[in-house]
Amino acid sequence: MAIKVDEELCIGCELCVQICPEVFEMNTDGKSIVKAGVDVNTDCVEEAIDSCPTSAIIKE
Q: How do residues 30-40 score in pLDDT, each as one tens digit?
């Protein structure tokens, strides 16, 4: 499974970072990104996907 954040949809609310800080972080533009080299197969990723208010987190 691969996870990405659509920066066009991301509003920078940081909810995903609060829910799953081991996978998500904020970039210098105030948008969420997936940390490089992390295991995205954790339970908190699904919660972050479901909680994103703009559906910016995409599972591929």
A: 999 999 999 99
